[in-house]
Amino acid sequence: MEKVRNIATKVKILSGYTPYFGVPYEELKNRKWEVVYFLYSYCDGTCAHCWSSQTFLGRVMPIEWHETFWQQVDFSRIEEIKLTGGEPFLYRKIGKVIEIIHQINSEVPIRIFTGGRNIISLKRGKEGIDETIQKIIQTGVVFKNVEIHLSADEHHAGSLYRASKGIRVRPTSREDVLRMNSFGTPLLQTQVKNFLAACEVLIASKRGFGGGKIKVHAETGRLNHHRREIFSWIDDAIWESKVVSSEGLVKSRAAKDIDSAAEFLPNSRLSLFLFPGAEFYREPQTRKVQKYQNLENQSFVYLDVARSGGCGASIIG
């Protein structure tokens, strides 16, 4: 299939090609970017509302690729870097990626977005906290200006429950979703308690480490339920300083049948999304392809797996 090269514009921040259909160039030049970097495109969770397994988010690339990539980046144009996926902690050399970035520029904040299953113990009390501390240290991500954001909502609770029972498939009915979410709530509470306590220890012992925050992404109208029923033990001061919350879930998978789910509305903030191992084509390559329309001439481009070269692709959105 023919790659798209000439119909997209090169962005100076890196040597990639980024469609910005419908966005005036004046809004792009001299902008400092929030960079969303899809480090690991797969996830071992079974969250009922998750859409990431339904679309192409790039390929898992070797550490040499990441090293070459970040050496080409103009860090003066970056406001912050978000490492995401899939599940970024499934990338075994995630600490090395952060080290590579820090060797070039250690002042740009890095946020890691995770479901936490690989770095947080579900044991209760001091044993769980100590085990979590060691797991986080072993990943090699405890650097200056690095923060870990743990996704912690009722659907992640359901995923924790299924993992504890060896269930590897997502629920297909609303009844199963609610039942498993409820069963998993105590596990989620333990996970959050261990994570916050471990991060406080690491902040005290590792100079400059940003610690952790809790990311609660609730269904429309369900944020108060999370605050009242799931996280009632968190006091207001910690809630204000450590919890990042929002409402409205994408209608995907079992969430298609959830009345309180809502389609995402565009965010007014422009971000630069980076997909290692991806390329734009004039025709789709796989079933998980991402499709983008040029609003000016109604043509389409397709973000899909790079068949050769593997230079990576970027999207402004």
Write a brief caption for the model:
Helices cover 29% and strands 22% of the residues. The protein is α/β, with parallel strands linked by helices and 317 residues long.
Largest sheet: 8 strands, mixed
Numbering strands along the chain, what is their spatial order in the largest sheet? 8-7-6-5-4-3-9-13
- Report the sheet-strand fraction: 15-25%
Would you list the SSEs in sequence order as H and E? EEEHEHEHEHHEHHEEEEEE
Distance between the termini: 25 Å
Structural class based on helices, strands and sheet pairing:
alpha/beta
**Structural shape:** globular
Gyration radius over CA: 20 Å
- Domain module count: 2
Share of residues in helices: 25-40%
DSSP summary: helix tally: 7
Q: Please provide the count of β strands.
A: 13
What value does the average pLDDT take?
86
Structural key phrases:
317 residues; alpha/beta; 2 domains; 7 helices; 13 strands; 29% helix; globular
Question: Can you give a write-up of this model?
Answer:
The strands form three sheets. The chain has an eight-stranded mixed sheet with strand order 8-7-6-5-4-3-9-13. It has a three-stranded antiparallel sheet with strand order 10-12-11, with no helix packed on it. It has seven helices and 13 strands. Helix 1 links the parallel strand 3 and strand 4 (78-85). Helix 4 (154-164) crosses helix 5 (174-205). It has helices spanning 63-71, 94-104, 125-139, 154-164, 174-205, 223-230, 236-242, and strands spanning 9-11, 16-18, 33-40, 78-85, 110-114, 146-151, 211-218, 243-247, 271-275, 278-281, 290-293, 300-305, 313-316. With 317 residues, the chain is an alpha/beta fold. The model is unreliable at 4-17 (pLDDT under 50). It folds into two domains: 1-31 and 270-317, no CATH class; 37-255, no CATH class. The two termini are 25 Å apart.
